[in-house]
Amino acid sequence: MLSRLKTYLILALAVGAFYFLLSHHIIFSSFSDYDLLKKEELTLKYTFFSLRQVTPEAALRIDALRYAGIGDIMVERGMLDQERLNELSRRIEMQ
Predict the structure, then answer these.
(1) What are phi and psi of 38, to 5 degrees?
(2) pLDDT of residue 61
(3) Which of 12, 67, 69, 79 would give a disulfide with 74, using CB separation of 3.0 to 4.6 Å?
(4) 62 burial level (CB within 10 Å; 0-12, 13-18, 19+)
(5) In which order are the strands placed within the sheet that holds 34-38?
(6) Chain-centre distance of CA 41, in angstroms?
(7) pLDDT tens string 55-77
(8) How many alpha carbons fall within 13 Å on the CB side of residue 45?
(9) Tens digit of pLDDT for each residue in 13-51?
(10) Would you give the distance in Å from CA 73 to the centre of its chain?
C-alpha cells in the first residue's frame, strides 16, 4: 500500500512539473538570475529563453514572448527604456 502511494506521488509530481513547463516561460538573464512569464497557451515553444543571446528587438519579434510580457522584463533589467520599448513594439506590430 505504501509503495503504491509513493508511486502515485511521484507520478503526480512528474505531471505537475510537466504542466509547469507547458504553462511558463523561463527567461534567463544570467546563469543564476531568471524570471517566469505565464504563457498564453500550453506549449513547449520558448520554454527556456536567454536574454543574453539576442538583441531586445529580436526577442520582441517572437510573438509568444511579446504577448507574455518580455518587454516589461527588459525594462526592469535596464536593457530598454519604456519609450524604446513602445517604439519597437509599434514597429514590429506594423510589419
Answers:
(1) -75, 135
(2) 95
(3) 79
(4) middle
(5) 34-38, 24-28, 48-50
(6) 12
(7) 999 999 999 999 999 999 999 99
(8) 10
(9) 999 999 999 999 999 988 889 999 999 999 999 999 999
(10) 10
